[in-house]
Amino acid sequence: MHDRGAVPAVGAIWDDAMREAIALAQSPDAPYGENPRVGCVLVAADGTVVGRGHHRGAGTEHAEVDALRHAGPAARGATAVVTLEPCRHTGRTGPCTQALLDGGVTRVVYGQSDPTPTAGGGGAELRVAGVDVVPGVLVSEAEALNVEWTFAVTHGRPFVTWKAAVSLDGRVAGADGGPTAITGPAARRDVHELRARVGAIVVGTGTALADDPALTVRLPVPLPGPPPLRVVVGRRPLPPTATLLDSAAPTLKVPTHDPHEVLTALDARGVRHVLLEGGPTLAAAFCGAGLVDRIELYVAPLLLGAGPTLVPSEAPGWGIEVERVEPVGEDVLIVGRLRADVRSDGDR
Q1: Which pTM does this prediction carry?
Q2: For residue 153, how many other CB atoms are within 10 A of its CB?
Q3: Residues noted as catalytic
Q4: DSSP at 6
């Protein structure tokens, strides 16, 4: 087994390889989805990279297998540098631990430990098989790849981002309550990039009926995976002509007003990250249940004077911890989260 005292001497090599593995995990064809984004680099004893790989979505080769396939015989005796601990279970693909052993890899370096009970523990399994295992290399950077996925698999529900756009006087629409252009083109592009990173976009029937939204991702580049699921919450039916019922993306109607039931239904479908785009009533329900994990609020430089506010007037106030504030074109983006004393893990 490798002497852990020697780790600092070669740590820089592993750091560089881990940074490359992180970049691979962020490849344009690596979708956000039910599975985590993972990258892998195979490094020979002389420091030469002999294989690179990344995961391209559920049902495709895992990053380690992709890298091993590209490396071929050169993988024997190499170090596998992986952003996430190699899995040890058989799902739609086989266990990466066995693939690494079959490929002759003698050391595995990984960043984030796998938090799932079925796939986690691959590092220990590899150690038992005689492989030198070094965990926790650039762990913060590796964990940043899959913040929402990690939350979902450890909390038993999807991570929820609430996105909203408001005028300076706190209005989300004009006096008639209908669709109102509030933010500029830069912020609107931002929103479509956010939509491309989630598994589901959620609105209430009120928004669906008043705005007839498409809730699709409209970007100049193609999505690496399937479009996010469009979700309508509430008991009122949609008219057959509703845009949400077209073939541009799948749509799920959840006939409830209970945010817990909504997230349970989406978790059962493998959704890891939910984008809440509904109106004030739906936002207040999720906030009141402590089920909003991130807030992205676009504030536009205009005054509407009248119209619905960000949350209903009867809703209680909520404290927000601001994480960052940045200009987006002519608008301002405020990113934060509900204060810890009004958040929960969704347990009832």
Answers
A1: 0.90
A2: 21
A3: 64
A4: G
